[in-house]
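Thread title: Can someone regenerate the structure for this chain?

I was given the following input by a collaborator and told the matching structure tokens would be attached. They weren't. Posting the sequence so someone can regenerate them.
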Amino acid sequence: YGLVRSGVAPDHPDVKNVENEFAAILDSPPTSPNNNNSSPNPIQFYGNVNVGSTSSITLPELLELYDAVVLTYGCDSDRSLGIPGEELEGVHSAREFVSWYNGHPDYVHFTEVFGRYLKNATAKKQTRVVIVGQGNVALDCARILTKSVQDGKDSLFHTDITQHSLSVLGNNDDDDDDDNNTSGGGGVAVSIVGRRGHVQGSFTIKELRELTKMEKNHDCTFVVRDDELELGGSTPSSQVEVTDSRAKKRIDKLLRSVSTPTGAIDETESATKNSIHIRYLWNPISFNAPTDNNDNSQSQQSVKSVTFERTRLTGEPHAQTAVGTGEYTTLPADLVLKSIGYKGRPLPGLDELGVDSGDVSVFDERRGVIRNINGRVGVERLYVAGWIKRGPSGIIGTNITDARDTVASMLEDLPLLTSTNSNKLGRDGLLALLTERNVKVVDWNSWREINRVETDPGRRRSDSQPREKLVSVDGMLDILN
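Best answer:
Regenerated them for you:
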């Protein structure tokens, strides 16, 4: 299920309910005058196929087999800040962290990596995490880092978070000597930092409201500074932005209702208590290693702090930019997560197909998307939809409108698409080619068997846990063998 399985936070099961709609389509063939219940399902799933690879199938080969090909493979890389220290150990993307705790097979090895950064909790020392960026993904990461993993109401224990992630995140629940302390070992102090103000933040009120309730539900302090709200919200342009948007009004009201005067903030919080601080109008300047020149150990190459410059907002409403003021601050950091946006990559062989418009590449490297007009790529019979079409924005439901736009283009092109179909082998040709290349295809029935194993009561931590995911491709294929 792509983003639903590997991107949606485990404590947001309601968002994952869209899986049921997808499953219904594959379980029951859509009815139409040309398709009765005795006909094969016109929609088929073929997994474990590496599109773009000569070991599975290339894009030109797909175009030879089918009347039309739609690329919907999303964004699987990250934008770069381009500042000093970005290569240091301990500086990772939020996408990597999310993929890890959600059990994506390509990121299981991060268990050792993130375990090393979060180990301070086991030694009853505070782990400092800085998250750069202020979208919903940043809030997800902060919440997962600080939420209780013990068997209790609203804890991660009863979600589909993977066991290997739960064990690392649960380091700070070990050896709890204080009955009133739900964090047991060292706490996790998270700072979510953005270069603009709260009015420009891209998170939604639902995710923000969850953080404001962390104190009550998970003994996690939530702090937003009233002076930073005032700095960002007092510009004439920000006031217009709030007035123009009901969602912005609600966020502004919520944050002001829970804000704390800067002078009343405890800067020496207990090392055993979790906390989340949202900081506004700070732009990252550098990620810093230790300054001890006599230390030649591996820790010398690990991030220890992040330097920020205070910014101010300038510009017209809905187009304000953050400019530096010359004021700097440094936050300690054992781990940094960059949550500044996903970025798409070109499918192997995409640019080799050529385009109608001349020398312009099919793929826009700067934006990380495939160039298109209403889903039409500059290659005959090739289309695109989703994040790789428009960029990593919006929620799952946004893709519905996006897909309709692409399908409308395909319907307009139907005379062209069907004019050469006599030579197209379609799925028969695809399966023959994959069989010839010894590709182990995972079809829908195979996936249902994997799903059965993952949801087996014997694998789950509790009756409430939806599933314990298989986290290796080989493990999934072994089930089928």
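The two ends are 22 Å apart (CA to CA).
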